[in-house]
UniProtKB/TrEMBL annotation:
Signal peptide: 1-18
Keyword Signal: yes
GO CC entries: early endosome; extracellular space; plasma membrane; recycling endosome
InterPro entries: Transferrin-like_dom
GO BP: iron ion transport
Positions of the Transferrin-like domain: 20-365, 375-719
Name of the protein in question: Transferrin-like
Keyword tags: Signal
The organism of origin for this protein: Galleria mellonella (Greater wax moth)
Length: 758
């Protein structure tokens, strides 16, 4: 007992003197300085995103932070321990209401049969792109989910279908006509296709197209915005609809100010199927009689240990829950957590985020009862799995389909293999492994990433300056020399294969790219060449151990006799990009094929002088100067650095494809105000390159017509590599005449194969 009291008093003493740590987004640059002013009690902890803040709160590395409405639901989904809601942030005009908004269902008074009674009806919707009120897709589709069960599809065939198609298919069976504007899919092709095939769901819009409602015949009334889609949906209801879904505040505006003559003809349809007739009195109430969805306010959340202190401190720092102003640190804190003057902070009795949000908006913990089974994302580290789980919870909270589940494996090859075997569905994979993934694991891309200009994957060939000055000036000179590659079958390896085909030094009819390279060079270090996971050609009869003849085991680093190794880890001194640079420094080797990202730093770490090397360009000339800064025209490949892969021709592929369009929309770098502050392409919990590399800026289609140049190049590279059929005659001794024959053969092959599928 005595110990406990001592401990407690120590705690109190500590906290009285210590500062409270508040999460501040790194993008918010001035707040941290202002929080150090004038004897401030608060100190800033920079976070990448607000979800990172939640993780810090749970670990006690920060004391409090602010979260959006939808983020609170995510915290509930994750059942994050040791954090509590201490105050809500309400808009001034609705500060006595419990809810940020209410979404209600309005029907004519003669409606009968509850939710099921809506079947066959005419549905007026504010639009999936309605920017008003920060409605998530789950909110926007709440009536559809409860009445039409649009997330269930008994008897429907789901193979090759997207979640969007299944949803619209169910809706079109349920409603006879509708106006449901906005994107039905964030994949524009799918969206256009669905709009044309299920046009009854647009038939009540202007011109029967889902771009929006007609406003031509609408009269103007002061205080009512005719361009507001909720008002337009209610107009649609009273014109010719049988049900409208809209925000309570707009229902009030519409019936009180615009169309008082209709008030007595309409009711709210409650979730339990009962009707609540509208009247001037009812419409005068700030809270609706019943709502399809009610949204909890955004809130300030604190770590449990300091929650009650923060709760009482907020009262002191911000009198009446308002901004104290006058440039004080308290004001800076208010501006950062709460925002402008339209808000008011209301203290709450401490409770968990789940408890807080579920009393207002209960949300099942991610359920698998949906049209599509959860799609399994293969991850390769504990932190990556965690980021995946947060992404899955955030996507589920927003109502994104299909749901995501997270699989944990030990490495990229385990993922490739388990996707192949149907034990996982997709993964974002380094383009380094693109060829192996296609060739050995039979996977195919659903999306490619887009990279920042400086970060795409660039492959170059370098020779020693001494040989460049003597006898290696062209690809032809590399025959019977010794080559270094970071890894067998990797992007640098296959980029060389293509360059060698183009330069006609390796036969394009040799489809076994181990043999093609192995027989061209007299020796090589291509780590992994003898490993089964790195198979580039099934049933190869070529003994690939010669492709590791130049490797060095790190245990024999100091001795002059090298022990044979073909390992593809750091026990092989020449493994990886930096290892292959060290390999080129070996007097026994002649050429290296590497990725150029960070190459200057890697050389300097190895204490190698870049000016001892010169690039051999794809057009078969030596670079004009020595060193590793080369222009893009000299590269053997300039391609994206990652892609999302699934099984080839698998029934899940289309749904994964459009899932990524949706994830990119909500968690990518789109200029939207995020409902949930999670960044799929940014560091998570202070760790880079989880799920996607930090170099990712977006996604694009795996198509040779993509707008992103590295993406087009990547597809072209594989189009070339996969066009090998073995149909041409083998390469005879090099000679001018033969070269011409090759050109023709290559041309014929590429014409013949130009319809190759990836
Ligand atoms: C409800 O009333 C409207 C007119 O107010 C009428 O057109 C419609 O047929 C009625 N529906 C039912 C189910 O009685
Ligand atoms: C949309 O999805 C389909 C697969 O369902 C895909 O083929 C297409 O390229 C995607 N992208 C766009 C921009 O339409
Ligand atoms: C109302 O909807 C019905 C059914 O879709 C249609 O036949 C009728 O022409 C519509 N009336 C008006 C005034 O738009
Ligand atoms: C249905 O819900 C409304 C609003 O919450 C409530 O007033 C009504 O009593 C409920 N009716 C039944 C039958 O439970
Ligand atoms: C959750 O809320 C209920 C009802 O308000 C309360 O009894 C319970 O103690 C709360 N649980 C927690 C963990 O705060
Ligand atoms: C290439 O030149 C180097 C240095 O001049 C010489 O040692 C080597 O024998 C030459 N190799 C061939 C194959 O000509
Ligand atoms: C491949 O060659 C190496 C070295 O020449 C030899 O030790 C090995 O037994 C060969 N492997 C096969 C499968 O022939
Ligand atoms: C190689 O030599 C370095 C220093 O010269 C030494 O630190 C290292 O332990 C040696 N490695 C082996 C495997 O003997
Ligand atoms: C290359 O880099 C890796 C990771 O940074 C390191 O473990 C390895 O020792 C490096 N290899 C060489 C040859 O320096
Ligand atoms: C080959 O490519 C390099 C690098 O882009 C360029 O500088 C050079 O002019 C090209 N040479 C020829 C003959 O096209």
């Amino acid at each position: 007992m005595a110990y406990k009291e001592l401990f407690l008093s120590l705690l109190v003493v500590t906290y009285v003197n210590a500062q409270y740590k508040v999460c501040v987004l790194r993008s918010d640059t001035s707040t941290c300085q202002n929080l150090d002013k004038d004897g401030s009690e608060v100190e800033c902890v920079g976070v990448e995103t607000r979800l990172d803040c939640a993780i810090k709160l749970a670990r006690g590395e920060a004391n409090f932070g602010a979260f959006s409405e939808e983020e609170l639901l995510v915290l509930g989904q994750m059942q994050l321990p040791d954090v509590q809601v201490v105050a809500t942030i309400r808009s001034t005009e609705k500060q006595d209401v419990q809810y940020a908004f209410e979404a209600v269902t309005v029907v004519p008074n003669n409606h009968s049969g509850g939710l099921e009674g809506l079947r066959g009806g005419r549905y007026c919707h504010p639009g999936l792109d309605s920017p008003d009120l920060r409605w998530s897709p789950r909110v926007l589709k709440a009536l559809e989910l409860s009445a039409a069960r649009s997330d269930r599809c008994p008897g429907a065939t789901t193979d090759f279908k997207t979640a969007e198609e299944l949803e619209v298919e169910e809706l079109s069976k349920f409603f006879s006509a509708a106006c449901r504007p906005g994107p039905w899919s964030y994949n524009t092709t799918v969206d256009a296709d669905l709009k044309s095939r299920y046009s009854s769901l647009c038939s009540m819009c202007e011109d029967g197209r889902c771009t929006g409602y007609s406003t031509a015949s609408v009269v103007n009334v002061a205080g009512v915005n005719n361009n507001n889609r909720h008002i337009q949906a209610l107009d649609c209801l009273v014109t010719n609809g049988t049900v409208a879904f809209a925000a309570w505040q707009h229902v009030q505006e519409f019936f009180l100010k615009r169309n008082p003559q209709h008030v007595d003809a309409y009711s709210l349809l409650c979730p339990n199927g009962s009707l609540q007739p509208l009247s001037i009195d009812v419409l005068g109430q700030v809270v609706s009689p019943c709502a399809t969805v009610r949204q909890p306010w955004r809130a300030i959340v604190a770590s449990s240990l300091t929650a009650s202190e923060i709760n009482s401190k907020l009262n002191i720092w911000w009198t009446d829950g308002t901004d104290p102003g006058s440039g004080s640190w308290q004001s800076a804190l208010y501006q950062s957590l709460v925002g402008g003057s339209n808000f008011r902070v209301v203290g709450e009795s401490l409770t968990t985020p789940l408890n807080y949000s579920s009393q207002i908006r209960p949300l099942d913990i991610a359920t698998s009862a949906a049209c599509l089974t959860p799609r399994r994302w293969c991850t390769i580290s504990a932190l990556e799995t965690t980021k995946c789980q947060w992404t899955a919870a955030a996507a589920y909270t927003l109502g994104i389909q299909p749901t995501i589940s997270c699989e944990r494996r030990n490495g990229v090859f385990d993922c490739l293999n388990d996707i192949k075997e149907g034990k996982a569905d997709f993964s974002s994979v380094d383009s380094h492994y693109g060829f192996l993934a296609r060739q050995h694991y039979r996977l195919s891309p659903v999306k490619l990433v887009q990279n920042t200009r400086t970060s795409a994957s660039r492959v170059a060939a370098f020779v020693k300056e001494t040989s460049a000055q003597a006898n290696i000036t062209r690809f032809e000179n590399l025959r019977d020399k010794v080559a270094c590659f970071p890894e067998f079958g990797g992007i640098a390896y296959v980029s060389f294969v293509r360059a060698a085909h183009e330069r006609q030094v390796v036969s394009p009819s040799e489809c076994d790219y181990a043999r093609a390279v192995g027989e061209f060079f007299s020796g090589a270090c291509a780590p992994g060449a003898t490993d089964a996971a790195h198979t580039v050609y099934e049933d190869s009869s070529f003994n690939a151990s010669s492709l590791c003849s130049a490797c060095r085991s790190s245990s024999s680093a100091n001795s002059s006799i090298s022990e044979y190794t073909c390992a593809w880890d750091n026990t092989n001194l020449y493994f990886g990009n930096n290892g292959s640079l060290l390999c080129l420094a070996d007097p026994a080797t002649d050429v290296v094929f590497v990725e150029t990202e960070n190459i200057a730093a890697q050389l300097s770490a190895l204490q190698l002088n870049p000016n001892n090397y010169r690039a051999l360009c794809r057009n078969n000339t030596l670079a004009a100067s020595t060193g590793v800064n080369i222009d893009d025209g000299c590269l053997l490949a300039y391609v994206v650095d990652a892609e999302v892969l699934t099984r080839r021709n698998d029934p899940v592929a289309n749904s994964v494809n459009t899932l990524f369009d949706t994830l990119d929309k909500f968690f990518g770098y789109n200029p939207n105000t995020q409902l949930i502050n999670l960044r799929l392409y940014s560091p998570f919990d202070s760790t880079s390159d989880l799920l996607f590399k930090d170099t990712t800026i977006g996604i694009t289609e795996p198509s040779s017509t993509a707008n992103h140049e590295p993406a087009r190049n990547y597809i072209e590279l594989f189009r070339h590599l996969e066009s090998c059929t073995g149909a041409a005659t083998p390469l005879p001794a090099p000679g001018l005449a033969v070269r011409t024959v090759f050109s023709i053969v290559t041309l014929l092959i590429s014409l013949f194969m130009s319809r190759a599928i990836f």
